[in-house]
Amino acid sequence: MASENTAGAAGVAEHYQGMPQLNPDWFSNQIFWLVVTLVVIYLILTKVALPRIAAVLADRANAISSDLEQAERLKQKAVEAEDAYNKALAEARAEANRIVAEARAEIQVDLDAATAKADAEIAARTVESEKAIAEIRAGAMKSIEQVATDTATAVIQAIMPGTGDDKSVAAAVKTRMKGA
Amino acid sequence: MAAEEAGSGFNIHPMDQFVITPLFGDGPILWYTPTNVTLWMGIAVLAVIALLVLGTRGRAIVPSRSQSIAEEIYGFVHKMTEDIAGKEGLKYFPYIMTLFMFIVLSNVLGLLPMSFTTTSHIAVTATMAMAVFITVTIIGFVKNGAGFLSLFWISSAPLPLRPILALIEIISYFVRPISHSIRLAGNMMAGHAVIKVFAGFAGALGVGAVAPIVAIMAVYGLELLVTVIQAYVFTILTVVYLNDALHPHH
Lengths: 180, 250
Hints:
The structure holds two protein chains of two kinds. Chain A is mainly alpha-helical.
């Protein structure tokens, strides 16, 4: 074996002449160890490495898809929450409008009542005032009549004393005043 | 020739890195002898464990960096299998992943200084290519019976051309494992040999070896790309062949 390898022993030795690849003495050794190596690598791959990597990759794919699913779910939830918020907002707005309208109506009623009351009061006061004015006017007429009668009596007494009595003077004044 | 090189002080032995040596002692290399092949394939296995088993031990929903790398590789190969061979092809995903992990890690580990590149040996790549070829052929016949032969009978071509095309298709079918294996081994061997040659120049030039060192850096960067691309190419061709076996009708 390996005779070629040592063929140069006569010379400097140790240096291989030609291509070591073509030395048939070494083929069986290489093929044997190659087969052993490939079988060992195959066993390592099929028993440990490949199932493990495949499992890791599958786990990752699952994790990613479940994360995506969850994200989708959360997004859905957010959309729902937004919808609910918008709905609540709309409801609140409607409620507020309703309350405002109610309040306005209530205030209107109060206002109307107050206005009516005020009107009535004003009317009553007007009637009272008119009555007072009439009274005052009547009082004034009476006073004028009195004054006129007194004046007339005084004038008559002064011009022609002893003529006419109070009654006739008063009657005459009354008649004059009515005529006026 | 070796003596001449030694005499000129210009020792470049780019192929020495591909020599197989026993790990213990100096005995003959039998089929079961632990060799540097065993060592570097074992390191590739450890790298697989580190990347895909230790890296994912957290099983985190939000992955750590190492778990992220493992998931990326898994997703990359898984998607490639599904895109090319369809849902039925996913049944064979562990085999494809095994091939891809072994090749990509062997290729990249081979770029470590002083390391040994197991995938630069035609014996290794041809074994894998033949395994793919035989498996795919068996799957083709088991799944489709004689219908698998319609792979060679291009029904969309004009009738007179079909026998000729069938001959070409059959030849190309049987050339597949050869191109499949030589592409990978050749790329690995050539790149590493080129780096070694430049390294030899650098050694010969001594302190002034700026140009070869820059060249090594450039080739190293290129090789990093090539190692991954070749692993990808080997794997994607495997899936394409698998797809032919699963869906032979063009």
